[in-house]
Design brief:
The chain has about 290 residues and is of the alpha/beta class. The protein contains 10 helices and 10 strands.
Amino acid sequence: MSSSPPHPPPPEAAVGSLEVHGLSVVYGRSVTALHDVSLRVPAQGIVAMLGANGAGKSTLLRAVSGTLPLHSGAVSSGSISFDGVPLTGHAPASVVAAGVVQVPEGRRVFAGLSVADNLKAGRLGVVGRGRDDARLALAEVYDLFPVLGERRGQAAGLLSGGEQQMLAIGRALMARPRLLLLDEPSLGLAPLIVTRIAEVVRHIHQQGTGVLLVEQNAALALDLADRAYVLDVGRVRLEGPAEELSRSDDVRRLYLGEQPESGDDRETVPADRDTGPVPTLSRWSR
């Protein structure tokens, strides 16, 4: 566990933004999963987090959403805040109340409950809003995902993988989030469904909700995002505008599965980078 002091958030932190400063996370007593990670998701922005399996992407989302203790993890140093409200170490219900909601990897729907009951579960922990708001939220989810309205009485476990992902996103939207944490939303889905999920993310963004997108499909993530970060072995190795990173030789070689056209064009890997083999993401497509 690190003994370094936490990094204080900057005084100019923007309203409605997620601010992560010097975040380190440990599992158990000895496994450090994140090392001094800092990032910012501006109000109503889309930020992508890229990296291979085991880079620490899901750990970052767990730290923000307050679910680390469920996985025997803990923040050892650093701070997390949203809209100026500290979130570090807070329970998941408090994080949801602050306006931050996560869609976990693997969909995680309640298989034995109906579609409608799964969506109603998304209202748990939401306070200060009445039944009219709940009805309006439900109507908006059905409008966004008409297939869920058609199958509202069907058990969630009988839905296809793509429909379950829609249900998981719809359940999160029931809480009226101002920041949505998406963990691998395209994982295991057919290309047509991935396209639909991308359209939904754009729609959510256009409605004023910020998005922190963790995604192994780097092409999709960089196309959707305004800014991107690259995690490697728990550290932020690269960051910048998504369009610029998509043109970076380092990103294309390590995370998009491409090679520079010639040795003269190849970017130099920073000296402090772990130069061991980095898995190439296999889901790069145009």
